[in-house]
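Weekly puzzle thread! Below is a chain. First person to post its structure in token form gets bragging rights.
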Amino acid sequence: MLKWLLMIIAALVLAVVLFWDRVVGIPFWLEALGILPWIRRLDPLDKWLPAFLATVIALYAIFHETLWKHWRRPKLRTDPVPNCIAIPVYVKMPGDYVGVVPSFQVRLVVKNEGAERAESVEVYAAALKEETDGVLKPCEWFLPMNLKWANEDATYTGISANVERVCNVLAIWQPSPHDKPPHALSHAPNDFEYGSKAVVRIHTVVQPSSFSSVVFPGSYKLDLVVAARNAENQHIRLHFSFDGRWFEDQPQMFSAAVMVWTTVEGAGSRHSHRAGIKRRF
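Winning reply:
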């Protein structure tokens, strides 16, 4: 705040030096506009000054805490570039332990650009929509719920000022016959080949018995809400499309088989980024 105050004072001094000939003519402008005669009617000013100062002091006493909190409040921002990284995962399917499986993870980086710590920060997956032939259709089988924060599998976390945290959003495992759920899924394509085609898993806090977090090849939009107890919500749309192919090479995977990008709205910003053009590895 002191920096901004010094900048304002410096700008005023510079303006006076550069435009002194105009500044000294201000009284004549005020006279021509009829403002000076109106000011003279306020004489004597000693009757008005105490009332004005009392009003300013009262307003400060009432609102200074609110203004101070608003100035220093946490400001959550998401990196427009999705964090796409290869991470081996331990997988345990019902009745059969698989072990370490290669995977690619798509994660959301959330940073607190405010001056105070953001409390109870969460990322909520509000809706999933599939795009077919340019038509966007809600996936009724998807159950909205929170996502997991990386490295702790927690629903809520705190983010200190100028610190960022990573939230797990999507996972793509190397195709395996063990990926097949124990029962048929209503939203699965007919005769889907689990052993040769990959699926996307949304990192929901729990795995529903309906396996609604399992997404099959296609083009989708996942609506996310980044929220905190003491910060404004930010609405993000994660766009992803994939065809079920698997590549060991990470750049090839995110250019030939998978495309991920985001559009972010909230706190006066809107931007988009395609991970297939510039990836964050």
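Puzzle host: Confirmed. Bonus trivia for everyone else. Confidence is low (pLDDT under 50) at residues 266-281.
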